[in-house]
Amino acid sequence: MIRVLIALLIGGLAASAALAQGTPVQQVCPIDGKTFTYNALNVQPSHKLNLDMKRVDSFFPWPHPKCPGNGFVVYKSNLTPAEIEKLKPFVLSEQYRALSAIHSTHYLEAVLRKQLGEPPYDVAWALVQATWEVESDPKRYKDYATEALAMYDSIPLKTLANIRFRNLKRLMSGELARRLGEFESARDRFLEMRDNAELSKPNYQRVVEYQLRLIRAKDSGPHPIPD
Domain limits of the chain? Predict the structure, then answer.
């Protein structure tokens, strides 16, 4: 029985490793039209989330396809011809080449979204996903998280018509402040959320109270959303 369990465990680990490698697919670079091979995610991620909305799977987040010649990240499949033409000079510039050499694919997504003049909310969300990619690197995590928090703080709530977006902006701002060790700022943010009618539902309040406990403990680490 023990041998069977060990075999099953080894097999399970091998299967997880294989899944994490992805499945090779052909991808066309929108900038130069060249075809390259990209390892696409071939498994459905877990629905379990951390407080920063990162799925708990070890292979998450999966990187965007990245063109080998120019470093363009294909962050969405429906780029219009006009968007491609607008991005092309920037992607082919020395500035983007330098950024592409050092930054994660989701950070480059944020750069490209800003270049297109997309909504700050979308840029902020891309920056949050970039923090997931560099979570094991404290220096890069701090840089990305600081930029993401600044972007969220630059968005007036009144410009977000969707209540879900308003609440996510509030929750992500507080989480980023806590993860950055800015405990006083994080506390003030979550105290405001505790008294806000838009966050009165029990699932929101569980998160708010949990965050306040983490803040009192001066805990800046990642944690799953409480059940």
Answer: 167-227
Instruction: Retrieve residue 35's tokens.
Output: 């075809």
Q: Tell if the pTM clears 0.85, that is, is over it.
A: yes
Please tell me the distance from the alpha carbon of residue 171 to that of residue 199, in angstroms, as a whole number. Answer: 10
Q: What are the backbone angles phi and psi of residue 61, rounded to the nearest 5°?
A: -85, 150
H/E run at residue 132: helix 120-133
Non-local CB neighbours of 33 within 8 Å, separated by 6+ positions: none
Q: How far apart are CA 28 and CA 37, in angstroms?
A: 9
Q: Is the peptide bond before 61 cis (omega within 30 degrees of 0)?
A: yes
Dihedral of CA atoms 117, 118, 122, 123 in degrees, nearest 10, equals -10
Contacts of 144 (CB under 8 A, 6+ apart): 104, 107, 127, 130, 131, 134
Q: Which of 49, 48, 53 is nearest to 171 (CA)?
A: 53
Q: What is the pLDDT of residue 57?
A: 78
HEC sequence for 139-161: HHHHHHHHHHHHHHHCCCHHHCC
* pLDDT one-digit tens code per residue, 180-203: 999 999 999 999 999 999 999 999
Cα pseudo-dihedral 158, 160, 166, 168, rounded to 10: -150
- For the stretch 154-173, pLDDT in tens is 999 999 999 999 999 999 99
Return the structure tokens found at 58: 């070890």
Three-state DSSP class for residue 66: strand
